[in-house]
Design brief:
Layout (H helix, E strand, L loop, with lengths): L12 H17 L13 H8 L14 H11 L4 E5 L2 E4 H17 L7 E4 L5 H13 L2 E4 L6 H11 L3 E4 L1 H4 L9 E3 L3 H8 L20 E7 L7 E6 H14 L7 E4 L8 H9 L4 E4 L2 H4 L2 H10 L4 E4 L1 H10 L8 E4 L6 H10 L2 E6 L9 E4 L9 E2 L3 E6 L12 E7 L5 E2 L3 H7 E3 L8 E11 L5 E6 L4 E3 L2 E3 L1 H5 L1
Parallel strand pairs: 1-10, 3-4, 3-5, 5-6, 9-10, 9-11, 11-12, 12-13
Antiparallel strand pairs: 1-2, 7-8, 8-18, 13-14, 14-15, 16-17, 17-20, 19-20, 20-21, 22-23
Helix pairs in contact: 3-4, 4-5, 9-10, 12-13
């Protein structure tokens, strides 16, 4: 037997004897037992890895995201909510614009269990449109205008949105999908939208009652079969995630978060909604800026940014070019494995560093770790999230032993849009939860530390990540 030195006190004869005794008792008691079926965990250890380290229950309000934003908009009506280039919108202005656009979208067929695609440039208009779609009761499907036309066409055809919200610049480069377009800067649309009420919408104005089980967004990610798949995330999962992140990263009126992530990457949801539920401001990085680390550094310094989320690749570039801009900055790292050397360099420069992990299928981030030195870990599960490190028989493995990571709890998505087969393959029954509960098979290989943190070891399949983007080699082949 091999014991990991950072998990087990290998100098303790008592611990070694106890564990070996536990294993030998099972083998002697049942000589026909298969070696792979021997339970290496004692009752205490099993309780720890299944329940103890997953004690994450927190109370989250049973409301949809628009209700939370509307409450904050009343409290902070005059405070700056969104900054984009030379444009600044207050909370009151954002709420009014979103309400009017939401009513217009409802008049065109948007509502609960329906989708609205958003293909807009990086500007305040996208933030308003995201809120407007959610207020209408529909779920939004972010479409990156910079993606190949074939991929954009595939997403629109697969999602089947009732509307496509865009502007006159982007619209010219979009494929003919047959979806009705709402061109926001069209004079006729501007006139019609301005004629709607600026009050918050009620369920009586929507096509149906909006509740936590309705989709908030559908985000398309790479597919192992060569076909991208849309992950359906419900309001209750998104609200739980945002509540957890607001606790991890408390912000107020003096904070500004720089949004640099493409709209079609799920972590953009944190960049937009966490500040807007906290009374802080979102600074939307323009298209050309977010691809240039030097320009990002200038924007951080010139916009009073206090919080930023990015992949390790971008943080590495900023450290190499403009390390001074990290002074006092609250740094959020995610999307791919954080190298130990980079973690140490960030801690030396930044005010606070947090490593985040989570697949799209479990609503953005599922674990978090405040970086403070030492070996890099994925940390522990966030609110109402449970993580299991399992072997091929879906049995928990001992701390220090490699296993595949499964995630259960409030963040688990509904599944893949229109892909019942693939949903059943990846969203499997949870043997540690209640009746009907599911867990998501991540494909990531991890191990527990003795303190209950997760350490990333690699993948169980051929999936790779490049600058945070999840890429299935099957899609490249196709």
């Amino acid at each position: 037997l091999e014991f990991s030195a950072d998990v087990f006190d290998v100098g303790s004869a008592e611990l070694l004897v106890a564990r070996l005794g536990w294993l030998l008792e099972q083998v002697v008691g049942d000589p026909d037992v298969r070696v792979g079926c021997v339970d290496v965990l004692s009752g205490v250890e099993r309780e720890r890895v299944v329940s103890g380290w997953n004690d994450t229950v927190r109370e989250v309000p049973d409301v949809v995201l628009p209700v939370l934003f509307e409450a904050r908009a009343v409290e902070c009506a005059g405070a700056v909510a969104v900054v984009s280039g030379g444009v600044e919108l207050s909370y009151g202005e954002v709420n009014v614009r979103a309400n009017r656009l939401a009513r217009y979208l409802v008049s065109l067929g948007a509502g609960p269990e329906r989708l609205v695609a958003l293909a807009l440039p990086r500007s305040e208009a996208m933030v308003v449109a995201m809120l407007a779609v959610l207020k209408s009761g529909a779920g939004y499907v972010p479409v990156d205008p910079g993606h190949p036309v074939e991929r954009v066409g595939m997403v629109l055809g697969d999602a089947g949105p009732v509307l496509l919200v865009t502007d006159s610049v982007v619209a010219g480069g979009l494929p003919d999908s047959g979806v009705r377009c709402v061109v926001l800067d069209d004079p006729g649309v501007v006139e019609r939208v301005s004629g709607f009420s600026d009050e918050d919408l009620g369920d009586g104005e929507r096509l149906g009652r909006l509740c936590g089980g309705h989709p908030a967004y559908v985000l398309y990610t790479s597919g192992s079969t060569g076909r991208p798949k849309g992950v359906v995330v419900e309001h209750r999962a998104l609200v739980n995630f945002l509540a957890a992140m607001c606790e991890w990263f408390p912000m107020g009126g003096g904070d500004r978060l720089l949004a640099v992530t493409t709209w079609s990457f799920d972590i953009a949801g944190l960049e937009v909604f966490v500040p807007l539920l906290s009374g802080a401001a979102v600074v939307v990085g323009p298209e050309g800026v977010v691809l240039d680390p030097g320009a990002v550094a200038e924007l951080i310094a010139g916009s009073g940014v206090t919080v930023m989320q990015a992949t390790p690749a971008l943080w590495q570039e900023l450290l190499l070019r403009e390390p001074g801009v990290l002074e006092g900055l609250r740094v959020l790292v995610g999307g791919e494995a954080l190298p130990g050397e980079l973690a140490g360099a960030l801690v030396e420069r930044a005010g606070e560093v947090t490593n985040l992990y989570g697949p799209t299928e479990t609503t953005v981030w599922s674990t978090a770790w405040r970086v403070s030195g030492g070996p890099v870990t994925l940390g522990k599960p966030v609110w109402n999230t449970r993580v299991y490190v399992l072997d091929g028989r879906l049995e928990p493995v001992a701390p220090g032993v490699a296993g595949e990571l499964y995630i259960a709890g409030a963040g688990v998505a509904r599944g893949y849009a229109g892909r019942v087969d693939l949903t059943a393959e990846r969203f499997v029954a949870c043997p540690f939860g209640g009746p009907g509960e599911r867990m998501y098979r991540t494909g990531d290989v991890v191990r527990w530390t003795r303190d209950g943190d997760l350490v990333f070891l690699g993948r169980a399949d051929d999936q790779v990540k490049i600058r945070g983007f999840r890429i299935e080699l099957g899609e490249i082949e196709a």
